[in-house]
């Protein structure tokens, strides 16, 4: 294996994340101060029919997340033109859609990058390069609470499960898990 693949560590600050949003605003993870969490959903882009299904489910549950004090955004490496098609084409009138995620920032967030290979089954051209899906919950202090990063578009976490987990976490003050990194493990073994 050449080089190291970055991964985020729970209870540690997440990397900077600033992207424009469809509609003229912008998203800055450091400026988000929801009562509970920021839910960041990285999706593959307009070409992905599985992303469409996932984001439609997310749109339908926005009120449930907001009720729990969770701010929500969906972000891709798509350019403005493609991202601007996502909301009306996929019928996502309320969901904040971020775009122009740079590949270096995607890598800082631990996302996997794929090469486009022609058109999808729905006839939409894939970009030359794009990030694979991931879901993160970030605390208001900017530290990672939960992360799920994928190499493929299939078998994603369900938002109903995430809502249930948030209820449990808040009720029981459940700590973020997975906070021990290799450096600590090697130091303890010495």
Please, could you describe this protein's structure?
The chain is an alpha/beta fold and 190 residues long. The chain has one domain (18-189): 3-Layer(aba) Sandwich (Glutaredoxin), CATH 3.40.30. The protein is built from six helices and nine strands. The chain has helices at residues 49-60, 62-67, 80-90, 103-108, 159-172, 182-189, and strands at residues 18-20, 26-28, 37-42, 70-75, 97-98, 113-115, 129-131, 134-138, 144-149. The strands form three sheets. A five-stranded mixed sheet has the order 5-4-3-8-9. Strand 1 (18-20) and strand 2 form a beta hairpin. The longest helix has 14 residues, at 159-172. It is globular. The two termini are 25 Å apart. The mean pLDDT is 92.
Taken together, the total number of domains comes to: 1
Name of the CATH class: Alpha Beta
Write down the CATH topology: Glutaredoxin
Largest sheet: 5 strands, mixed
Q: Biggest sheet: strands side by side, in what order?
A: 5-4-3-8-9
Shape descriptor: globular
User: In which range does the helix fraction lie?
Assistant: 25-40%
The number of helical elements comes to 6
Q: CATH homologous superfamily - what is it?
A: Glutaredoxin
Uncertain spans:
none
The CATH architecture can be named as: 3-Layer(aba) Sandwich
Radius of gyration: 17 Å
The end-to-end span amounts to 25 Å
The proportion of strand residues reads 15-25%
**Total number of beta strands:** 9
């Amino acid at each position: 294996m050449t080089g190291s693949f970055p991964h985020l560590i729970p209870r540690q600050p997440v990397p900077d994340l600033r992207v424009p949003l469809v509609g003229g605003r912008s998203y800055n993870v450091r400026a988000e101060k929801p009562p509970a969490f920021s839910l960041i959903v990285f999706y593959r882009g307009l070409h992905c029919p599985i992303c469409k299904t996932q984001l439609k489910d997310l749109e339908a549950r926005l009120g449930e997340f907001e009720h729990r004090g969770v701010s929500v955004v969906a972000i891709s490496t798509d350019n403005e033109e493609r991202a601007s098609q996502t909301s009306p084409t996929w019928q996502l009138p309320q969901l904040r859609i971020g775009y122009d995620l740079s590949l270096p920032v995607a890598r800082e967030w631990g996302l996997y990058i794929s090469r486009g290979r022609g058109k999808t089954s729905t006839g939409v051209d894939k970009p030359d390069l794009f990030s694979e899906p991931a879901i993160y919950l970030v605390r208001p202090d900017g530290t990672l609470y939960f992360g799920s990063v994928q190499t493929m578009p299939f078998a994603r976490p369900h938002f109903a499960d995430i809502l249930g987990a948030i209820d449990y976490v808040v009720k029981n003050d459940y700590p973020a898990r997975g906070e021990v990194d290799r450096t600590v493990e090697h130091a303890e073994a010495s």
